[in-house]
Structures are given as C-alpha cells and as structure tokens.
Amino acid sequence: MTTYDNRVSQEIADRLDIVDIVAETVKLTRKGNRYWGLCPFHAEKTPSFSVTPERNMFYCFGCHAGGDIFSFVMKRDGLDFKEALEMLAARAGVKLVSTSGSRDQEQRKKVIEVNRAAAEFYHQILLSRQGGVVQKYLENRGIKQETILAYKLGYAPEQWNRLEEYLLKKGFSQEYVKLSGLIKRNENRNSYYDLFRNRLMFPIFQYNGDILGFGGRVLDDTLPKYINTPETELYSKRQVLYGLYQARQAIRSNNEAVLLEGYMDCIKLQQAGISNCVASLGTALTPEQARLLCRYTENVLILYDGDEAGQRETLRAIDVLAEEALKVQVVTLPAGKDPDDFLEINGKEEFLQYIQNNKLSHIEFKINRYLKEEKTINLEVKVKIINALKKDINNLKSPIEKDYYVKVLAQKMLMEPNLIYRELQLANKRQNPTDRNKTQISRDNIQYGNYSKDEKILAAMLKDEKTFAVIKDNLGLNFLARSEYKNILNIFDQLKGNQEERLVKLGEIMQQEGMAAVYARIVFLMEEINVEEAEVNEFICRVQALKIEARWQKIYQHINFLKVEGDFENLLKFVLNLDSFLNETREGGI
Ligand SMILES: [Zn+2]
Known about the structure:
Elements: H1 6-15, H2 18-23, E1 29-31, E2 34-37, E3 49-52, E4 57-60, E5 66-68, H3 69-77, H4 81-92, H5 103-127, H6 132-140, H7 145-150, E6 154-156, H8 162-169, H9 174-179, E7 183-186, E8 191-194, E9 199-205, E10 211-217, E11 226-228, H10 244-254, E12 257-260, H11 263-271, E13 277-279, H12 287-294, E14 299-302, H13 308-323, E15 327-330, H14 339-358, E16 360-361, H15 362-373, H16 379-394, H17 399-413, H18 417-430, H19 436-439, H20 453-463, H21 465-475, H22 483-494, H23 499-512, H24 516-528, H25 533-565, H26 568-585
Helix pairs in contact: 1-4, 3-4, 15-16, 15-17, 16-17, 16-18, 20-21, 20-24, 21-25, 23-24, 25-26
Bound molecules: zinc ion (ZN).
C-alpha cells in the first residue's frame, strides 16, 4: 500500500482527462456520455471496456478491470502507484516533491518548458510597442484583445537571434532549444538562427494546454504564408488539432465539432461564440486527427473554404472521418468565401442561419459534388457515381436512411430506385464485408441485468441521499452480502461534505484500499440507474422478510435441538422468552 498526498493526486486527476489517457492506447468511440473500446486487459472482439469522463473512471464489463486514471496507467504500463503518480504528474504539469521520470519524459518536459517560454516571449513582444504593427494587423482582421490573450498570440521579431539569446539567457540549455525546433542550424557558419522571424505567432496547444509547437504567419503577401515548427519528438502535426484545447468542452457539450482549415477561421469563429471549432494544421485531415475528435464527439461538421481546393479537401476529410465511424455533415460556403470572411460580412446570426439551412449529410454532399463534376449524365456516368457511393450507402445501418439516399440519387439521375438498389447489391456482393461491422459498438450486448439486486441498491444509495437514509433507517448498513459493499456503505456514511465531495473522497479511499475496480463497477451502474421509491420499499421488505425467515429457522432448529436433548427446562425458558424475541423482529414495521 502506497501512501500519497491526496491533494496532489486530486489535482492531477482534475487536470487530466481519463479519456485522453485511455485513448493513447485504446480506440474509443463515444456513445452518449460514455466511451467504448476494446479492452486492453483482455482479448475481445466486441467492446466491453468503457470510460466515463464525468467520473474520470473506467470499467471493463468483460474482465472487471476498473478504476481511476491512476489504476489505468498502473495496469497498462505495469507501474506501481508512485510511478503512475509521477508519470501523470509530469503530464498534468503538477510538481511533485521528488520526481525521477525516464529520460524521454524528462526531455519532453524540458522541450515543453522551452516552448512555453518562447510563447511568452513572442506574446510579450506582441503586446509591447515593438508589436504595434502586428496589433494593427490583428485589429484590422477583427481579432479582439481578449482573443490575443486567450490564444497567447505572439510576434516573432525580425532579428536573427533574439529568441535564442532570450532562451539561453533564461537558463535553457541549447540542447533543448534545438530539440524544440525553434532554432535552425546555419550549415556555413556552424551557428544557429531563429526559425520564426517577422511573423504572427500561433502557439499550438495540446489538449491539456501544453504548447507543442508554433505556426507563424507572414504579415504581408510574402511566401510561404505559413510555416510551422518542424516535426520534432514532441510535435507531429498529424496528431494535433488547432483550437482543440480551447474548444474541447464545447465540443463535448454540443456533441459536435466544427472542422475548419485555418488558424484564423478557428480563432475568429471561437471569438464569435461558435466555440466548438478546430482546425487541421495546414495538412489534409489525418486519421490521427479524426481519432482525436472521436474522444470528444460522434459528430463533425466540415466547414472548409468555398473554393475548389476547399471542396476537394472536404471530400477527402469525409472519408477519413467516416472511416472512424464519425457522423459527418458538410456546409459549403458560397464560392471563394472562407468561414472568416463569411462571418465578417454576415454577422454571427446570419452565419449560423446559413449553416443551419445548408447542412448536408456527407452522402448528399458527395452526390451533389459528383453530379457537378460531370458534363453529361449518361449511363456510364450513372454507374460510376453509384459505385463511388456504394460504400457510403451500404454502410448505413438504417434501411430508412438507405432508402432515402437511393431515392435522392434516383431523382437526381432520373433513374428507377430499383435499378440503383440492384447496382448497390451487386457492389455489395463484390465487396468483402467490411471490418467496420465487426468493430461497431454494440453497447446493447452489455447486460446491465448482470448487476445483482444488491449492487443496484448500493448504487442507488450512493446516488441519492434520500434512498441512503431510508434504507439505513430500515436495514442498517450491514445488510449486503459482499464485505466490499458493506465497507463502501460504512465508509461513505462517515464521510463529510456534500454528495459530490463524498463520492470523490470515497473514490480515493477505494483506490488506496485496492478496491478501485469494485468501486468502478458500482460507479458505472450509478450513472445508469434510476431506482423508484417502490423498488426501494420492496427491497427493504424483502431483506426484512429474509431476516425474519432466518430467525424462525433458528428458533425452529433450537427448539428441535432442545427437544431431542430432552432439556425441557431450557425449552420452557426459551418458549417463555419467545414473545419478546418475536417483538424484536417486528420492529422493522412488518
Ligand atoms: Zn477487459
């Protein structure tokens, strides 16, 4: 049993999201408030491993592994609690009194520190007199002061070595500054120079607020318009979405992410209160980025530029997102407009109205796009289009949806729907059944009925103070068969604070007592369960009836014993006292 400072572990747990940590190794898909994936702790084909971000816990309905963020890392990486604490503390940016992380972690931490210092440097210069030009530029583009602060926008000055000098003077070793990618080697002179000069700087945050790299934009029409931190140990543009750190809560609560192309679009839309936007970083959307989105939502709305390039990218992004089983919608802006322009010209209300009125499902978008590409719609083209859509349409689970798109297609191509069906079926036969059906999450398979009555009552008691009080009054706290469950009730009963605080403390104690998995099982049930008053009463009656029956059984056995022994004196005594004994058993109100 490791002892540790509860405050530190609580702070770490508050800063990190269990979904993010789990998603590093498990592909998670969101369903309602939960995330599901294939359990990393036992072999399975249907996901029964679940994570609840609300409670920061995981539980596997297959192998009954479960617990909090620490339990997960301990189990996954084979760490003891102290090691898990150190690792997660480093990730959360929480200082422990003594840390002895691995070299890689140490290095990573140092480079993040370099980036943080660099961001601060750029930011301060932007806010200073030297940044006047950039401030003017941002003002012209409609960026507000609070946005500059929230995104820690900065200005990399014109000079060749300002940043390097600053960082070295701050005490960072050149090794780490090099690793950050912020300085570049000059081959001829065997020296280094700042990568970003005379650029507007956008720090690129990881979901947890760490700065992994930067994007720099020129202030005029010089090319390249944007440069990014080169790929480093820390920064891989395939794995990051711009704006996610600021947007993650909104994405989760709206259960939708708006996917944009550029930094500016992202900042401008978030500034206007459309908070659930993210942007891919000047690359075509990658599977890694799509998976990142899966952690927060099931729905993505693509809002790329209205030009040809933007529409072509939309088509590619659709396939990447659909591959991760995300539900995709598309809004096409009028030709030549990007989201930022469009918002600027029309204002927020009209912008939102436009989005509402022009949302298309990804299949409708594809249909329109394919038809637009063709000059004439002859038979050959029709077959080509149907084939291009076959995967999308065949992947639809709902026959009603399928029927709908077949009819849309039929109408647009002036064909009989039946013919399209036949063509789709042909396509279906030619294709191997896709893997996607296998990985589809069937949460219905998880038998919530597998929970015992005791577990349901325990969950109901922890969830609702009134239920807890009623049951405690009638049955006390030791009526559950499993000793772990009895413990939970007794510990919970003694905790002070409001319901929420008590649950958090209970979780900590369970973790310390090595009962994290048992507790996780109950927490998952707690989120689902809604026990009616009648059910509680029935349960109380049943437990009391069982108790009485057990007593009668004992009385009967005892009388029988005395009878057999021929001990009539004691038998008489016992029968005379039986009256008061029976009265006791009636106290439960039966
Ligand atoms: Zn499992």
